[in-house]
Write a structure and sequence with these properties.
494 residues; alpha/beta; Nucleotidyltransferase, domain 5; seven-stranded mixed sheet; five-stranded mixed sheet; 22 strands; globular; binds adenosine-5'-diphosphate
Length: 494
């Protein structure tokens, strides 16, 4: 039977998705299921690993049925996933010893403060590219081993396995045969040396984690096992794996040094390909592995904005000045400019490059003439301002100017926002036809391994633009806007 499709599994923070792509990178079908979020105490966020796998398996089966294709037409599977989320399970029974501790979970913040006091900040930064923060997997693993009765002994005896979500899915899809991860996911654990591409013994010692629980680390385009026959009726290979932001960077075909993408979702995730050498940030951005492909490693700088599209949800749900996120564009377009209103949506502190967890949001510059349209416009502009702050920090680190920004995610549909982003950056903004960059990246990694696609050049030719935004405002105008924004940021960043 002719193999016509690649199945991408996109295991996200709130939902499991499955997307079928054809040879042209076009979408043949999508299925999605949300799953339960557990908040057992303030600062704790958990998922049930069994539910993660169940929903992921169900959407995978459903997308094939819905598309009306035969399983034999699926060439291979690619996996992309929420990163850092930590699962530890019993190798014999396959049962998790604890719920998945999600990347958002802050329970190990104090543990991180203690580590910082040991004066190992620079060592960690140099080896892993990361900050000492509860966000990453390392301290979450330690928490499980220290707090689940019997876990540490079992780990020492080689009875437990750790994995990020990719590893958990591979384990379950292959019937417990394979314990693998890829370099992009490994580079978010705080345990992986991004220079040597090995689990780092010194870091494992500092965090008191036995090496035997760790998965084997592979390239992004590699053989990760065959699915158990009983799952889909026929066995399918898994040949591509990457963490969600790295997969999106690849799906956007930012495959050359200096190429950057911004995903405008709930938050904004900006990732810049820095080429074959890691750039250690002087501006508090993270350094991470983008991918390893054909034996070559590409690195990236990454910065996130906590509240991106979420500010539009706030306009909808709390202020109730719009009914749908899409309406924000129409409302904001009824005024010519922001009328001097600046909105800093620091609802959960400020992310890169400020890293102020105590900052609170503010709306500044209100006058008697301020309307809800100005507020909507200021809210949209805040997404672009915050993204620009991250991109500026990146430019300072790499010491050259970024020429183009590629965009995806829900809020990238907003033309007013994209135009403003282009104005602020004074660069071209490109929005592709396929906005499912994350799934597409996973499919690309998988398809490259099997030869479904010949190489990245072929994929670069496939990448098609929906719309380009070019700067319309002049530099002076933009400088004034920036000055005002910086003034308001400095007021709340104290
Ligand atoms: P996530 O993957 O983080 O759930 P999505 O990529 O699905 O996010 O994007 C959803 C976010 O984008 C929401 O926060 C929503 O408010 C925002 N959004 C969606 N459409 C628009 C729009 N047309 N204009 C502005 N924001 C939008």
């Amino acid at each position: 039977m002719k193999k016509k499709f690649i199945l991408a599994l996109d295991q996200g923070t709130t939902s499991s998705r499955a997307v079928l792509f054809d040879h042209n990178g076009k979408i043949k079908g999508v299925s999605q299921q949300e799953f339960t979020q557990y908040f057992p105490q303030p600062g704790y966020v958990e998922h049930n690993p069994v539910e993660i796998f169940k929903t992921q398996y169900e959407v995978a089966s459903e997308v094939i049925n819905k598309a009306g294709i035969k399983i034999g037409e699926v060439e291979t599977i690619g996996i992309t996933n929420q990163r850092e989320t930590t699962i530890v399970w019993n190798k014999k029974t396959g049962k998790p010893v604890y719920n998945a501790i999600v990347w958002q979970d802050r329970r190990t913040a104090e543990m991180c403060d203690k580590l910082k006091k040991q004066g190992i900040k620079d060592l960690i930064k140099k080896k892993t590219g990361l900050e000492i923060d509860a966000y990453f997997s390392g301290t979450k693993i330690k928490w499980i081993l220290d707090n689940v009765p019997g876990a540490r002994d079992m780990a020492e005896n080689g009875e437990l396995a750790f994995g990020t979500v990719d590893t958990w899915l591979i384990w379950n899809l292959t019937g417990g045969k394979h314990h693998f991860t890829d370099v992009s996911n490994a580079s978010r654990t705080l345990l992986f040396n991004i220079n040597t591409l090995n689990w780092d013994k010194e870091l494992l010692k500092i965090l008191d984690i036995p090496e035997n629980i760790l998965p084997e680390v592979k390239s992004n385009s590699d053989f990760f096992g065959d699915t158990k026959e009983s799952l889909f009726g026929e066995s399918i290979s898994i040949t591509g794996v990457a963490g969600d932001q790295q997969a999106a960077l690849f799906g956007q075909m930012c495959v050359h040094k200096g190429m950057v993408k911004n995903t405008y979702g709930t938050g904004c995730f900006i990732v810049l390909n820095t080429g074959n050498k890691p750039v250690i940030s002087q501006n508090r951005l993270l350094t991470t592995i983008a991918w390893k492909l054909n034996n070559e490693v590409s690195y990236a700088l990454e910065g996130s904005v906590f509240v991106g599209g979420a500010v539009i949800q706030w306009l909808r749900d709390e202020l109730q000045i719009i009914h749908t996120a899409g309406e924000s564009e129409k409302l904001a377009s009824t005024v010519e400019n922001n009328g001097g209103v600046y909105f800093v949506p620091a609802f959960t502190g400020l992310g890169a490059p400020y890293w102020n967890q105590y900052a609170k949001g503010a709306v500044y510059g209100l006058t008697r003439g301020t309307s809800k349209a100005h507020i909507a416009r200021a809210a949209l502009e805040s997404i672009a301002f915050q993204s620009k702050d991250v991109i500026d920090a990146m430019q300072q680190d790499i010491k050259y100017k970024i020429k183009t920004l590629r965009v995806d995610g829900g809020a990238s549909a907003n033309n007013l926002l994209m135009q403003f982003q282009s104005d602020l950056l004074q660069t071209k903004v490109q929005r592709p036809e396929i906005l499912e960059s994350t799934s597409l990246g996973a499919a690309y990694f998988a398809g490259l391994y099997t030869g479904f696609w010949k190489g990245t050049e072929e994929l670069e030719n496939q990448w098609k633009i929906d719309k380009v935004f070019l700067p319309e405002k002049n530099k002076d105008e933009v400088m004034q806007l920036e000055k005002n924004w910086e003034k308001v940021i400095s007021m709340i960043n104290q």
